[in-house]
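HUMAN: Mind sharing a backbone?

ASSISTANT:
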Amino acid sequence: MLACLGCGDDWRALHQSGSVAYDAERYREATLYWERALARARATGPDTRIASSLNNLALACEALGRFEEAEILYRRSIELDQRARGNDHPVLVTTLANLADLYETLDRHAETEPVYLQALAILERHGPEDVRCGEILGSLAVLYRRLGRTDEANDYFQRTRAFQRRHLGPQHEQVAFTLAGLADLQRDMGEREAEQTYQQALEIMTAANGGESPEVAVLQNGLALVYVDQGRFSEARALLQEAARIEEAHFGPHSVTLAETLSNLGDAARQAGDPEQAAALLQRTLEIQTSVLGPRHPEVATTLNHLAFTYEDQGRPADAEPLLRRALAIEKAAYGQQHDEVALTLRNLGILLLSLNRAPEAEKACRAALEIHTAVFGLSHPRTARDLFELARVHVSLGEADDAERCFRRALRIEQQHYGRGHREVAATLYELGFLLVDEARPDEAVALLERALEIEQAAYGSDHPTVADTLWLLARAREALGQSAVAAELRTQADRILGQRHN
């Protein structure tokens, strides 16, 4: 998002002071400057200056999680500019794009795409060489990725990259950011090219801005998440520590950008089996976000989710549940009832409640998550598949094997349709469905599923990953049930070898 530019004495000075504060993440200070700029513009005119001030103030409100105010301000800005300049003026593009960004944040997808396309159409009529064309193409790519429209997302990332290379040059920082977006899409799809694409983006960004720039730190975060997916926790943590060092040097110790990196570092520590370090990092994240953004900001809710699972890993589930319920209250207040983040927290609450042997409550939470994700994304989205997966686990706990199998198979169909047959999410569902079938004395069916899961896991994680060992153990159980004791023994030996290597 970019602040609108303008001109004029005191108004310009206030505008610039607000921009400096905004760029330094001092959003409350930016709000004060831009409120004064708006008052000055209303006193002296013209309407175009008022429109610019409204857009700027909306940016600050959005950063502070004041979404309803932001929407009103954006809409008023657009109305004034349309009245002063007409409906097709290129100046409108910045505020239209900002409004579309807000709609995307709020999961109002039916409104998001048309506004982006409206802004793009204005530029294509008046300034097809305008660099903002590339920015909007990139925003559409991110939208399509989030909606699960993978082919369109890939196409728009490629279009964005081609535009930027043509108009900005192949080594521009915007090309690097577009490559990072493409890498995120590849990561979603479980493609090993994600690491290479991020490395390419980092090389461009380092050449463009230097190795100590905050933009480099952003890309280091993305590459670290790829490493986390691959179980390369030491590399991920080292990269995130470097990113945090850069951001703290650039923004100071109380930056929300730094907080996001600390949150990623905490999550990597948790997944690496270091919940104490994770808790310390997430507590620091929470302190920064609460101080800068306020205690009821959605970013606080995200950190509360991570901290809740860290507490569970520490054996403190009684402390975890209040955090998730607090996060849920924040998200409902900020976004409303029908939002992806609300559904994710409900799902996390369901997972926690199931671990506490409160399966009926877990079922209610998982069903609520499923209903929201179905309403927001449709029946065939990966979010919906994951809700079905967790709901199936609840049915297993309740002894409802038929319902569990139906949910697992629905999740599997969605995942295979979206990701293809070789994705790690497909493997996880195959494993759980295989586990159910072993317990239901259907080992022959289980073997076929588990062998597929094993093949995917070995390709995704390598042959010595703990996930591979788990599948080998379960496959051994299925083979044993089929009377294949020698094969089962060899599988158990392979699993023990992997776990032994891990602990040496």
Residues 1-128 form a domain with the Serine Threonine Protein Phosphatase 5, Tetratricopeptide repeat fold (CATH 1.25.40.10). Residues 67-85 form the longest helix (19 residues). The chain has a mean pLDDT of 95.
